[in-house]
Design goal:
4 helices, 3-stranded antiparallel sheet, 13 strands, 2 domains, 7-stranded antiparallel sheet, 190 residues, single chain
């Protein structure tokens, strides 16, 4: 499938501005998204979509709570195994784009695992569908929507890169990228 056919612009209606929680739940139902990764002026927001709607990491771990508000939201990525929706705020308002896979494994693509910072360590913990991860002496914390980790395990964000070939030279480059999944990285020979 041509990268141009995978990518489409999404019109963002006023619901995102008035009630981002509801807007995101609607998009998740429509496109089958599993996860939310959002960036706000005051921090990072992880979320998980399920049959009951959107659950945010700050609801489970108040120590990492960042409210999901349109006034502070910069961008959000709603993603799952078959698609990703990216919305971002600019001076002109909200914009969005959707990248989808028509097949389970796109022909011209590669998958990369990007390790997230933090481990359970001595103070991390799991609750609900989230795990509180802590990094280094500074004690930086975030709570991605993943469970089943052991003390030293890491978490990786799976990213799919779609390859685009130049029609004249035949050279390959990454034409599109999207988030796909969160996976545990088992360390220590388990």
């Amino acid at each position: 499938m041509d990268n141009a056919k995978r990518w489409k612009e999404i019109k963002v209606d006023g619901t995102l501005e008035t009630n981002p929680h509801v807007w995101m739940e609607t998009q998740a139902k429509q496109h089958g998204f599993t996860f939310l990764l959002a960036y706000a002026d005051d921090g990072v927001i992880w979320g998980k979509f399920n049959a009951n709607g959107l659950k945010l990491s700050g609801e489970v771990f108040p120590e990492v709570q960042v409210k999901l508000r349109a006034t502070t939201l910069q961008q959000a990525r709603l993603f799952g195994k078959s698609a990703e929706l990216l919305v971002w705020k600019s001076d002109q308002g909200w914009s969005g784009r959707l990248i989808t896979d028509e097949t389970s494994e796109p022909e011209a693509s590669l998958v990369e695992q990007n390790w997230l910072w933090g481990t359970l360590g001595e103070k991390g913990k799991a609750a609900g569908e989230f795990t509180l991860l802590i990094e280094g002496k500074q004690g930086l914390q975030h709570a991605p929507p993943i469970t089943g980790l052991s003390a030293g395990d890491r978490v990786a964000l799976t990213v799919r890169h779609y390859i685009k070939y130049d029609n004249v030279t035949g050279q390959a480059r990454i034409g599109l990228s999207r988030l796909v999944d969160l996976v545990p990285i088992k360390l220590g020979g388990e």
